[in-house]
Design brief:
heterodimer, A: mainly alpha, 0% strand, globular, B: alpha+beta, six-stranded antiparallel sheet, 7 helices, 6 strands
């Protein structure tokens, strides 16, 4: 499994359907990941669209040294942080609208997290710190390796290792003995 | 939330928009940068052309034909020799000639400005003329060859011959001293430590300029 690199190579060779395949495969995961930062599903979708348009504008920037998924997540992270930095005004939403947003968010979660165990884990990691949450997300939900997760988070492998170790400890406290089976 | 087709359309719309923006940016940069570069090149050439001419003049041989004339060079605003204070004839107030710490002659610009000018000019010529050219002159037959022969015979015949050391000190109006040491046909600028070995003809010419009759001195 090359995490999209071969599809991207086909896209560079001129196969238009390869891009559709990449989008289908990674769009929802990317929205879900970006939403961890921005906590706004519409903004996350907008950023994800931006990331994919960047892939089209600068097709040769991706150098195949990391998997395409890692590259997309790296772009997504930097754009999400940029979005947070420039988001000066906190938007207030109506209660009905908020309910709708929560439903949409849940719908995305359901497409990304098919597994019931992972769904329980997803609810539990909400109480973790942001870095731990992201590390758990990348490693346990997106099945990225520690190296890939460290590249996305711009941390060393050791730091990711430590974050996951501490996250596991906290999750054990939250979930009890059942939690150990989930991780 | 958009469906897949809407997302795809949005991605391609943004792609086209960004490509257009990029082209506009590129054109804007080119339209600003090209004239700016041209202005820079023109300014640089105007600023550095005289210095470059000077540089060519420094390294070119004196008897070569130049692309520009001496007159152009002198009117270009900066004269090569003006860099070196020691060679500016008008600045000097006096010249003192010493032989082994004993003052032989003192020339002052008040008393003998022509002599002063000829001494400093002579020093300039001797120090900064091309050695190979002077050498070729020295090799050719000239009436001064007799001086060379005489000085050689003198040095050969004298067993206890000791090189005579002359010191020439130029003092300018502000009291700044430029010191030259002449030791056995080697002239040393003590300020910038440059040195040059003189030919017999040059040496004789220098002695004549300084008004030293060496034969008489040694007798």
């Amino acid at each position: 499994m090359d995490n999209g690199a071969s599809s991207y190579r086909r896209f560079l060779d001129g196969e238009a359907s390869a891009f559709d395949q990449i989008m289908k495969e990674y769009f929802d995961s990317l929205i879900f990941f970006i939403n961890r930062y921005v906590k706004d599903i519409h903004a996350a979708e907008d950023i994800a669209i931006d990331v994919f348009s960047e892939l089209l504008v600068y097709p040769r920037r991706y150098n195949f040294k990391v998997s395409l998924k890692t590259y997309l997540f790296m772009l997504g992270r930097s754009r999400a942080l940029n979005y947070i930095k420039h988001r000066k005004v906190i938007d207030f939403v109506e209660l009905d609208e908020a309910q709708g947003l929560a439903d949409q968010q849940r719908a995305v979660e359901e497409t990304v997290i098919c597994d019931e165990k992972k769904r329980i884990l997803n609810e539990a990691i909400a109480s973790l710190s942001e870095d731990m949450r992201l590390a758990v997300h990348l490693v346990y939900f997106e099945d990225l390796s520690y190296e890939e997760a460290s590249k996305v988070m711009k941390k060393t492998r050791k730091q990711v290792d430590n974050l996951l170790y501490r996250a596991k400890g906290e999750l054990r406290n939250i979930l009890g003995k059942e939690g150990e089976l989930l991780l | 939330m958009r469906n897949f087709e809407e997302r795809k359309t949005e991605v391609f719309n943004r792609y086209e928009k960004r490509i257009k923006e990029r082209e506009i940016k590129r054109n804007r940069i080119l339209s600003v940068c090209i004239p700016l570069c041209l202005v820079c090149v023109v300014l640089t050439s105007v600023m550095f052309a005289p210095a470059f001419q000077k540089w060519i003049y420094t390294f070119a041989k004196p008897n070569e034909e130049y692309f520009f004339t001496d007159e152009d060079f002198l009117t270009s605003g900066d004269f090569f020799y003006s860099d070196d204070d020691s060679l500016n004839n008008d600045d000097y107030e006096s010249v003192e000639v010493k032989q082994n710490d004993k003052t032989l002659k003192v020339y002052s610009s008040k008393d003998d400005s022509e002599k002063m000018a000829s001494i400093s000019e002579g020093f300039s010529e001797l120090l900064y003329s091309d050695a190979s050219d002077v050498g070729s002159l020295a090799d050719s037959a000239s009436p001064n060859t007799s001086i060379k022969e005489e000085s050689n015979s003198l040095s050969d015949n004298t067993d206890d011959y000791k090189a005579t050391e002359y010191t020439v000190i130029f003092v300018d109006g502000e009291g700044k001293r430029s010191e030259y040491e002449l030791l056995d046909k080697k002239i040393i600028n003590k300020t910038d430590k440059t040195e040059k070995i003189l030919t017999d003809i040059e040496y004789a010419k220098l002695m004549e300029l300084l008004g030293i009759d060496e034969m008489y001195m040694e007798d």
